[in-house]
Structures are given as C-alpha cells and as structure tokens.
C-alpha cells in the first residue's frame, strides 16, 4: 500500500484552519494552472503562519473609524486577493506605509463595507481617515503598481491632511 497522498487531499489538509476565502481561491488557482500551484501553496502558508491577524472580524466598525487605515475589500475566490496576500501582504505590515495606514481586511459583503459605495472589483483598497474615504485603488495588477499607488495616496494624504480633502470641501458646499 502507498502512503503518499494525492495533491487534492494534501491541499485539503493544508487548508484546514485557513480562512475559507483563501482556501477556495488557492484551490481554484491550483486547479486552473497547475504550474502556478506554488503561488497557492505560498498564500496558504502565509495565511496559516499569520493566522489572518489583519482581519477585522471581531473588532467591528470602530476599527475603521479610528486614525488612518487601509481597508482591503476581498471576496471568496478572488485570485488577485490571494496574489496580493502572497506578494505584498507579508511585507506591508512592516513597511512604512503599513505603519502609517495599518491594514484591515473585510469581505465585500460585510455591512461596514457598504457605506463606502458599491465595490465592483476585488481587491479594492480604500484609504480611510477617521472612517472617511480619502483614496481608492481598484484591483491588483502587481506589487510595483500597488506600492506606487499607496505611496502616492499616503503622500497626498499627509500633504492634504492638515488642509482637508477636496472631496470633503465639495461635500460641505
């Protein structure tokens, strides 16, 4: 008798304890593109090691209304969300951007997300100050794009933070 497991059963065992959205996305990536199975494996390992501490499931909406935050809106089966978690996620928290705007991850269907308007693409990254949207990144084409966009948004926020955001000024009129 052979003690080896099939790749599918190995993925299932590894996925135990991983958030459902990450496990589902990893399975889809591995089934569509077996040569990219490493990406699914890396994302699952990251989720296991980190235990998804950035998820804001138990803290409620208070976490979104205090200070500067980066809200990542994801959904089950989002391959680009998994890519972001594998390529950027581990380094974001330790980066200057991550210290300036800590990451909060929410599902697209979360009631707290609805107040920021309709989310069409996932991941969507929303920069918040005190619960008010200050900027948005739609999608994730790669790490270079993300780091460039978040750096620009934070630089603008730092420069405009004392003066006020143009969108807020238009809302007051």
Folded structure, characterized:
The longest helix is centred in the last third of the chain and has 19 residues, at 143-161. A four-stranded mixed β-sheet has the order 2-1-3-4. Strand 3 and strand 4 form a beta hairpin. It has ten helices and four strands, in the order ααααβαααβαββαα. With 173 residues, the protein is an alpha+beta fold.
First-to-last CA distance: 76 Å
Anisotropy-based shape: globular
Category by helix and strand content: alpha+beta
Helical residues, percent: 40-55%
Give the rounded overall mean pLDDT.
73
Identify low-pLDDT runs. 1-22, 44-59, 162-173
In total, the number of strands is 4
Strand content: 5-15%
* Total helical elements: 10
Widest beta sheet: strand line-up: 2-1-3-4
Give the SSE order as H and E letters.
Answer: HHHHEHHHEHEEHH
Radius of gyration: 18 Å
Describe the largest sheet.
4 strands, mixed
Offer a concise description of the structure:
This protein has 10 helices and 4 strands. It has 173 residues and is α+β, with helices and mostly antiparallel strands.
What tags apply to this protein structure?
single chain, 173 residues, alpha+beta, 4-stranded mixed beta sheet, 10 helices, 14% strand, disordered C terminus
SSE arrangement:
Layout: H1 7-15, H2 20-32, H3 37-50, H4 62-65, E1 68-74, H5 79-87, H6 89-92, H7 96-100, E2 103-107, H8 111-114, E3 124-129, E4 132-138, H9 143-161, H10 166-172
Parallel strand pairs: 1-2
Antiparallel strand pairs: 1-3, 3-4
């Amino acid at each position: 008798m052979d003690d080896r497991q099939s790749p599918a059963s190995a993925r299932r065992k590894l996925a135990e304890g991983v958030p459902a959205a990450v496990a589902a996305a990893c399975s889809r990536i591995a089934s569509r593109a077996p040569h990219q199975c490493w990406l699914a494996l890396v994302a699952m390992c990251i989720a296991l090691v980190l235990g998804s501490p950035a998820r804001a499931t138990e803290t409620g909406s208070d976490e979104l209304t205090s200070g500067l935050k980066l809200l990542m809106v994801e959904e089950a089966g989002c391959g680009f969300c998994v890519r972001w978690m594998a390529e950027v996620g581990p380094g974001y928290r330790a980066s200057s951007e991550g210290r300036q705007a800590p990451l909060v991850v929410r599902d697209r269907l979360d009631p707290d997300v609805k107040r920021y308007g309709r989310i069409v693409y996932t991941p969507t990254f929303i920069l918040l100050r005190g619960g008010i949207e200050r900027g948005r990144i739609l999608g994730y084409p790669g790490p270079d794009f993300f780091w460039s966009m978040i750096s620009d948004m934070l630089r603008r926020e730092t420069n405009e933070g004392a003066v006020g955001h143009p969108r807020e000024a238009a809302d007051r009129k």
